[in-house]
Design a protein that fits this description.
single chain, about 625 residues, mainly beta, 9-stranded mixed β-sheet, 7-stranded antiparallel β-sheet, 5 helices, about 30% strand
């Protein structure tokens, strides 16, 4: 019998209702970007919870855990965490959703304690909802694991996320290997950890609460956490999944199949990767090749000799070579049934879906990339927030005269969009970024003279180190990569190749092919053919694969590629005619000439803008 391994779900939750499930914590906070003429970020539509509120949520989850632990309901767990209304009922998420999941606590069986210094990115995700009643029996409280994969992003399992409102009821704790405990004065001891709230949540749109297929999610934090992130693997990674490869799982899950006691400290275990054929033989159609991966030795039927993830380890990472290759997803009841294995979401299969959530050119905070455009008549810069297939009413950022380049990116990965601008009069390149601690904008010189650069692109992460980079083309036509260091500075440039001045347009931000690697689009001056240069995740001469002709576009004289405008996880393209009609070409995620679907007419009047980014 398959069970999800979510958290210490502790109470049966029935009928949360459609309103919660249909709008889970996606409402806008403050914009990622703060207008340069503003003294501070705009007032939050939903203010970040206070530390006292966050601590109260932790205490509530701990209390709910104690309430459920003695109930002895281990849960049938073959369906979704029932808070997902698509399953028709609501549940605690401890089990992948049956109607009786309470008292299942989190632990790793056969593991050992590990200090947080060995896994600084490891995160506790606590959830508590008292349901608005005085009866503690209907409280929802649970713990999931997660990994900080960017300063404002946590990778976890979809069954820990879908159907739950993490903004209103969630809290994360970083920087400690210990679970929190009550104090005699009624407080909570974090044992050196740091509390934080959650802002936005995303789970894979095809997640099935019945099969636990596509069990992957990303939580966005309102502020960057001060822990070292761990990178996710790449889409082309096969070596990490080779049978016998040693992988490491982390979590606060069950340490015994016969005990419901919570492990007070972070634990880890080493598991060998298992072949897809072996996993399919063990689990039949429950195992989805390409989406799931098994790890571990066959369980012995008891704690003795078994090393496995267990209930409550859900969402935690499986790591190979310093990169996350799996997310704890599901297993059998009590985790030690003879011949069973732990099952993880296979991260390499989801890089294309996750990548836009980690590097989103998102000004308004809704998972959709937004657009800057400068009006030619008076040099006023405007922000256009995406509505999916249209744009909201423009918002002025004030005068942006004496600029001939204006791009958006997030060089320091703090969740606030930055600007890369070039001053026309001097050719100097600047990094303009918001400093939350000082509540001001800083403008930092990054390159003294780039007036001879014919093209500059802010493509995201080209080199595969999860840090945003810059590209430029010299007057001689050589394309260079400037590898970002994550703090607004760059390493030594690496030459890709020459001949790039044959193109009159060079744009790109994000992944057009669905493999999680940043790509480029180039339009030839000779015949207006548009070519895709697929990224490889490497630097220097091997940074891009052979070009693919997408189509001829002589009818357009301006382009903008700012990322995922539609919010579907694929990079899109904007193209404008000389008469001023703007078209949105939605990405398909195909690594071929058909990388765009049928265009949507955004509207007319866009000829008034002379700078897009």
């Amino acid at each position: 019998m398959r069970i999800g391994l979510p958290a210490t779900a502790v109470a049966l939750a029935v009928g949360l209702g459609g309103a919660l499930a249909s709008a889970p914590a996606q409402a806008a906070r403050a914009p990622f970007a703060v207008k340069p003429d503003a003294a501070a970020p705009a007032a939050d539509a939903r203010p970040a919870p206070s530390r006292a509120e966050l601590a109260a949520r932790v205490k509530g989850a701990l209390r709910a855990d104690r309430h459920g632990a003695g109930a002895g309901k281990s849960s049938l767990a073959a369906q979704a965490p029932a808070a997902d209304t698509s399953a028709g009922t609501s549940g605690s998420g401890t089990s992948a959703g049956s109607a009786s999941p309470s008292g299942v606590d989190p632990k790793i069986i056969g593991g050992t304690d590990v200090p947080i210094a060995n896994a600084p990115w490891m995160t506790q995700l606590w959830y508590y909802d008292d349901r608005g009643t005085s009866d503690e029996a209907d409280d929802i409280g649970f713990l999931c694991g997660g990994a900080v994969v960017a300063p404002t992003k946590v990778l976890t399992a979809a069954h820990c996320v879908k159907g739950y409102n993490w903004y209103d009821n969630g809290v994360l704790i970083t920087g400690t290997a210990q679970l929190p405990t009550d104090t005699p004065g009624g407080g909570v001891d974090l044992h050196g950890g740091t509390l934080g709230g959650l802002w936005r949540q995303w789970n894979h749109p095809s997640f099935s609460s019945t099969t636990l297929d596509n069990d992957i999610a990303v939580l966005t934090l309102p502020d960057a956490v001060r822990v070292k992130p761990v990178n996710i693997t790449t889409s082309g990674d096969t070596g990490s999944y080779a049978p016998g490869t040693q992988a490491t799982v982390y979590g606060w899950g069950r340490t015994s199949s016969t005990s419901q006691d919570v492990s007070p400290t972070l634990r880890t275990a080493t598991l060998p990767m298992v072949s897809d054929s072996t996993c399919a033989t063990t689990y039949g159609s429950d195992f989805v090749k390409g989406h799931m991966v098994c790890a571990g030795q066959p369980a012995t039927g008891s704690d003795a000799g078994t090393v496995a993830a267990c209930n409550g380890d859900s969402g935690g990472p499986l790591v190979v070579g310093g990169k996350v290759v799996g997310v704890v997803s599901w297993g059998v009841k009590d985790c030690v049934a003879q011949g069973s294995y732990s099952v993880f979401s296979k991260v390499s299969g989801y890089v294309g879906a996750v990548y836009p959530r980690l590097d989103d050119t998102n000004l308004s905070g809704d998972h959709r990339a937004d657009l800057f455009a400068r009006r030619a008549s008076d040099n006023t810069l405007y922000e256009f927030d995406s509505k999916g297939t249209s744009f909201a009413t423009r918002q002025s950022w004030g005068s942006y005269g004496d600029k001939d380049i204006g791009l958006q990116t997030d060089l320091n990965r703090d969740g606030y969009q930055d600007q890369i601008i070039r001053r026309t009069s001097t050719g100097a390149m600047y990094w303009r970024h918001w400093v939350p601690s000082a509540e001001r904008w800083d403008t930092t010189l990054i390159f003294g003279y780039w007036g001879n650069r014919t093209k500059v692109v802010a493509p995201g992460d080209v080199t595969g180190d999860a840090l945003p980079d810059l590209l430029s083309v010299t007057s001689g036509g050589t394309l260079y990569i400037y590898p970002g260091k994550g703090d607004g500075t760059f390493g030594s440039p690496a030459a890709v190749s020459g001949g790039w001045n044959q193109y009159n347009r060079l744009v790109g931000h994000g992944d057009f092919t669905g493999d999680g690697k940043a790509d480029l689009l180039a339009r030839a001056s000779s015949d207006s053919s548009v070519y895709l240069y697929p990224g490889t995740g490497k630097s220097g001469s091997g940074a891009y694969g052979a070009r693919i002709r997408v189509r001829g576009w002589p009818q357009f004289n301006a382009f903008a590629a700012v990322g995922d405008i539609t919010g579907d996880g694929r990079a899109d393209l904007l193209a404008r005619t000389p008469a001023g009609t703007l078209y949105l070409y939605p990405g398909t995620g195909k690594a071929s000439s058909e990388i765009f679907g049928n265009p949507t007419n955004i509207g007319t009047g866009w000829q008034q803008y002379n700078l897009f980014g």
